[in-house]
Amino acid sequence: MEIDYSKIPQNYVYCMSAHCPEAGTCLRHLATQAVPATTKQFTVVNPEAYLGADGRRLCYQTSEPQHIALGMRHMLRQVKAGDAALLRAQFIACFGRNKYYRMRNGEHAITPDMQQQVADLFARHAPYVSVTFDAYCDEVLF
Prior knowledge:
Layout: H1 27-32, E1 66-70, H2 73-77, H3 81-95, H4 97-104, H5 112-125, E2 135-139
Antiparallel strand pairs: 1-2
Helix pairs in contact: 3-4, 3-5
């Protein structure tokens, strides 16, 4: 898997544990291979500090692309005026004000878990709205 270093967030935590049995599919380890030789320092996780009871590394992050959604404007236009304020308040309580507005505008990836949370909020407060996001794509999430 080829990783574009410019897409890795500045505060990303890498893993240099080449002996880990999951290194070949762990995004933290694969991202380490994309770090240019000119980079003098970066943050790494201590994989030994993150061993679960079953021996699996808790710092593992899948390198598989996730089916993410972008934008909620289409859904929000379907919300009845009387339900809009309560629904918006619930979104802000769940995700925070900035993240909610960035999700709404398509500026923040909506992960599969977040998509389920959005669907649950609509089911509770606006069940008549069809939960379909503005756009979808498959992306590796750092």
